[in-house]
Amino acid sequence: MDGQTLEFYETRGREWAASHPPDSYGRELDDFLGRLPAGGKVLELGCGDGRDAQRMIERGFDARPSDGSPGMAALASERLGRNVPVMQFYELEAEADFDGVWCQSSLLHLAENELPGIIARIHRALKPGGWHWASFKGGQGEGRDPFGRFFSYLPADRLEAAYREAADWAELTIASGDGFSYGGAPTPWHDVLARK
User: Fold this and answer.
1) Is 103 exposed, middle or buried (CB count within 10 Å of its CB: 0-12, 13-18, 19+)?
2) For 13-67, how does the pLDDT look when each residue is reduced to its tens digit (9 = 90+)?
3) Helices H, strands E: what count in the chain?
4) Distance from C-alpha of 58 to C-alpha of 132, rounded to nearest angstrom
5) Confidence of residue 78 (pLDDT cuts 50, 70, 90)
6) What CA dihedral angle connects 39, 43, 46 and 50, to 10 degrees?
7) Average pLDDT in the 109-118 region?
8) What's the average model confidence in pLDDT over 107-135?
9) Is the residue at 63 inside a domain?
10) Which domain holds residue 92?
11) Residue 21 in domain
12) Long-range pairs for 76-83 at CB < 8 Å and ≥24 separation?
C-alpha cells in the first residue's frame, strides 16, 4: 500500500469507520454470497473495520478477512472477536483455495500497472467456478483524493483490459454507476464480477 494511503488508515481509521452506519455492509455482498456454496470459504482483501466479514459470518460463511493496514486489521479484530491478519495483496499465495474473493474498495488503491499481477493472484486463489467481486472508482488516470489517499481512477474499458490481461475468466462483467466517496464527494464507480 502507498505510504500516504497507509498513513491515512493508520491515523484516521476509526474516523473512516465511524462515517458508515454501524450495521451497514457492502450493498452487493448478499447477491455475491448467493452465488457461492452454503458455508463457502471467502477471502476478503482490504476488509476495513470488518463490517462485510461480519455479514459473511452471520450468513454462515467461512470468512477470511485481511487488510494491508495494521490499524484497520486491529479494528476488524475488535469487531469480529478474532485475529484478522495484516496482508498485502502481493502476499496472496493461495491456489484453488477459496469459493469467493471479495474486494470492497481495496484494489482501487493499486497503480494501474500493478492490477493485472494482483488479479492473477486472485484468479489463482479461487477454486474452479469460484467468484470474485471488486469495486473501483471511475475516472481517468491516477491521483490522490483530498485526504491524501492514492487511487487508480479508471474508465471501464481499461479496467476490463486489466482483468483480461490477468487471467482467462469464464465470466466477466462490469457494472458502472454513480455513488459517493468518503467525505461525501460524488464519485463514479465500477463493480466487477468475475467467475473462474
Assistant:
1) buried
2) 999 999 988 788 999 999 999 999 999 999 999 999 999 999 999 999 999 999 9
3) 6, 8
4) 20
5) very high
6) 20
7) 97
8) 98
9) yes
10) 3-16+31-195
11) no
12) 76/47, 76/48, 76/49, 76/50, 77/50, 78/50, 79/49, 79/50, 79/51, 79/54, 80/50, 80/53, 80/54
Looking at the structure of the chain, the number of domains it has is 1
Does a structural domain hold residue 25? Answer: no
User: What are the percentages of helix, strand and coil residues in the chain, rounded to 5?
Assistant: 35, 30, 35
Distance CA 33, CA 81 (A): 22
Q: The domain that contains 91 carries what CATH number? A: 3.40.50.150
Cell numbers placing 193: 464480477
Buried b (16+ CB within 10 A) or exposed e, 68-87: bbebbbbbbbebbeeebeeb
